[in-house]
Amino acid sequence: MKINWKNTLVAASLTAVAAVPFIAKADGFNFNVAVGDDNEAHYHFRDQAVRHNPEMWKAAQSLAHAKTHLWNSRGDFGGHRANAVQDINLALDEISLAENNWRTGR
Fold first, then answer.
1. Residue 4 CA to chain centroid, in angstroms?
2. How far is 74 from 71, CA to CA, in rounded Å?
3. Are 38 and 32 within 8 A, CB to CB?
4. Which of 34, 42, 45, 50 has the fewest CB atoms within 10 Å, counting from its CB?
């Protein structure tokens, strides 16, 4: 039996390209979510009714800016980019909790 290496290579390449989104999702990084919506899930940037501590607000904006850079960068960086985004989300969650304590006087 003779193997057509060109067709085999094309089929393998197409399979690899088709697998990339599934690999990215398995790595915990969802490319279908807008970065602004993801930020809002961890901190109240858009809610005008929420009073923010000025320093915490600046810190949250800086983290969101850094996350946008990570989000838009190309490459996986061995999974470290996704880990960095997750760590920024955790930091935004902590800032949100700290501000809740600040607003309630705790």
1. 42
2. 8
3. no
4. 34
